[in-house]
Amino acid sequence: STPAAITSGLAAATRQGALIKGGAALEQLALVNTIALDKTGTLTEGKPEVTDTVLLADVPIEQVLAMAAAVEAGSHHPLAKAIIAAAAAHPPLTADRRKALAGVGVEGWVNDKHVLVAAPKHLPKNALTPSSVAQISALESVGKTVVVVLEEQRVLGLLAMQDRLREDAVSALAELKNLGIETVMLTGDNPLAARSIAERLGIDFKAGLLPADKVQAVAELGQHRVTAMVGDGINDAPAMKAARIGIAMGSGTDVALETADAALTHNRLSGLAHMIRLSRATRANIR
Ligand code: ADP
Ligand code: MG
């Protein structure tokens, strides 16, 4: 292979929002025929906002928000940032022994009481009343992510959050389709919200995936397809590693940016099609 072709391919990619880490990654990219993408922070902006609060106990909503924000403190998850922002207007509480439960939620102790903020489906059976379950489904059906706030296993309330699609998500996926590449969205979010978002994007999806499930989904694709995985490193870094090519969002975590084979600078999803085109052209040049 000619180093000059590779060098100029890498440089051209960089100008178009795609950072490719070396000739080996460039060559592999030319073979990719399937791209799996994380939802939150990848296809969406990863800046959700709390849109609805539902009180389910005799506690002021400000207190429910403050408790949730206390256990979310220190979490880099986009949902954590949304909850902390929503609680910012109220006097803060602090939590001890905070712990992230990957793909599930967070927990901690506020005033020596156990506080859990988690996805509804990970709660014990019968934790929610049928009417709460119906409220959650209604919120999820319009693309919102709902978390439940519990104190000592007592449900205090629901927080619904909504994120925006990246403005170039639809066009970037269309470009990949034109290149003959299959795409699938992998998400830990609930199936109803995932469907609502996937329909807007026109993409297949798998929902309710824990980080290990994302790894398995990528491994299964990899048995028959040359698969790249695009993520922001929050709950999806292992899946990025499991793929033939891992692609990090430019705003991704340090771990994601370090382990990835390529990155989308300025979070430009359109960089994906550029990467593929350049890698194919470079491959043609050096053969
Ligand atoms: P995605 O695949 O969309 O990037 P994640 O795997 O990061 O989603 O998270 C999956 C689900 O786990 C979220 O939709 C949420 O219900 C729950 N979750 C994860 N982290 C948190 C957190 N810090 N606070 C509340 N809920 C969380
Ligand atoms: Mg994510």
Automatic annotation (TrEMBL):
What is the annotated localization of this protein? Cell membrane
Give the protein family.
Belongs to the cation transport ATPase (P-type) (TC 3.A.3) family. Type IB subfamily.
The name this protein goes by in its record? P-type Zn(2+) transporter
Included stretch of the parent chain: 446 to 732 of 782
